């Protein structure tokens, strides 16, 4: 059970401690009179505290670890062992340059889905409402989640790319394009995490996050990471080429192996930034409602 323990200080706006007994996390927020709750300093401080809590919680949650790291890494190994040579021989392009970017996106997306389910549990258990009454910046709850998501995505991407390197993946276009390639899953994942957060805090009885997981699984099998777009039936090529995962994969392939970069990169940025812009306000409004502020 999650408990709130006010500090034994005489001041009415004294520091407060929130403990999450199930995960062994205890958060202590500084006295409110040190900085206004609406200040940038409070936002940075409180977001850092909350992000640390989320990272600790995810690290101790086997479901999140499996979804974000184990599953994509195992899938990458399976695709390379079962289909890699056949796809490479059929297309003339080393398949690892498609499947490694694909799995970095899968890690970002599936990890966000797992954290979205955890967010919904926190809402149902009343933890979000408990945080809302503490002397902390109102935006820290959402900012900290996106910050924690960014850290998780960077770590997951590095681990999956390391597995890809063991299987033959390389930065053939140089270090700078390689670094740019690593940034694409980060931006893509932040856009997807914004979508997941909006669904998690706004869904009550309809399992929107679970339905999104099914949609993600569908996109997993219809993108340019397995085989080039030209290998799909003609009537499917337009969908495959322009769906968000394919745009990001094509941009990452171009930055590592070589090939077109500008067009798929612009499309990937449009999908990612579009998701952030479109779902930011529903996420903010839904979070306020979930935390008990219905004004």
UniProtKB/TrEMBL annotation:
GO biological process, alphabetically ordered: response to antibiotic
Keyword Cell inner membrane recorded: no
Keyword field: Antibiotic resistance, Cell membrane, Membrane, Transmembrane, Transmembrane helix, Transport
Superkingdom per UniProt: Bacteria
Topology term for the membrane: Multi-pass membrane protein
PROSITE patterns hit by this protein: ABC_TM2
Gene Ontology molecular function, alphabetical: ABC-type transporter activity
Cellular component terms (Gene Ontology): ATP-binding cassette (ABC) transporter complex
Subcellular location: Cell membrane; Membrane
Segments crossing the lipid bilayer: 63-83, 95-119, 146-169, 175-201, 208-227, 265-284
Entry annotated with the keyword Membrane: yes
Matches recorded under InterPro entries: ABC-2_transporter, ABC2_TM, ABC2_TM_bact-type, ABC_2_transport
Domain annotation ABC transmembrane type-2: ranges: 63-290
PANTHER family: DOXORUBICIN RESISTANCE ABC TRANSPORTER PERMEASE PROTEIN DRRC-RELATED
Homology family: Belongs to the ABC-2 integral membrane protein family.
Name of this chain's protein: Transport permease protein
Organism in which the protein naturally occurs: Rhodococcus rhodnii LMG 5362
């Amino acid at each position: 059970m999650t408990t709130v323990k006010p500090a034994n200080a005489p001041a009415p706006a004294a520091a407060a401690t929130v403990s999450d007994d199930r995960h062994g996390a205890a958060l202590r927020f500084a006295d409110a009179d040190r900085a206004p709750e609406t200040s940038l300093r409070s936002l940075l401080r409180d977001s850092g505290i909350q992000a640390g809590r989320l990272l600790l919680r995810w690290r101790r949650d086997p479901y999140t670890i499996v979804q974000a790291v184990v599953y994509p890494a195992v899938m990458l190994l399976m695709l390379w062992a079962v289909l890699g040579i056949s796809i490479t021989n059929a297309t003339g392009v080393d398949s690892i340059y498609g499947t490694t970017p694909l799995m970095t996106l899968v890690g970002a997306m599936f990890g966000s889905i797992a954290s979205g389910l955890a967010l919904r549990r926190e809402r149902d258990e009343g933890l979000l409402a408990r945080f809302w009454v503490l002397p902390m910046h109102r935006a820290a709850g959402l900012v900290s989640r996106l910050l924690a998501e960014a850290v998780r995505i960077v770590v997951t991407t590095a681990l999956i790319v390391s597995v890809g390197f063991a299987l033959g993946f390389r930065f053939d276009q140089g270090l700078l394009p390689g670094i740019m390639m690593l940034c694409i899953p980060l931006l893509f994942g932040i856009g997807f995490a914004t979508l997941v957060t909006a669904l998690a805090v706004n869904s009550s009885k309809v399992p929107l996050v679970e339905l999104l997981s099914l949609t993600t699984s569908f996109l997993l099998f219809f993108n340019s990471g397995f085989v080039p777009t030209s290998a799909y039936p003609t009537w499917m090529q337009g969908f495959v080429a322009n769906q968000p995962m394919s745009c990001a994969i094509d941009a990452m392939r171009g930055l590592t192996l070589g090939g077109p970069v500008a067009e798929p990169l612009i499309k990937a940025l449009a999908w990612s930034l579009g998701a952030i812009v479109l779902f930011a306000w529903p996420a903010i409004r839904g979070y306020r409602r979930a935390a008990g502020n219905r004004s």
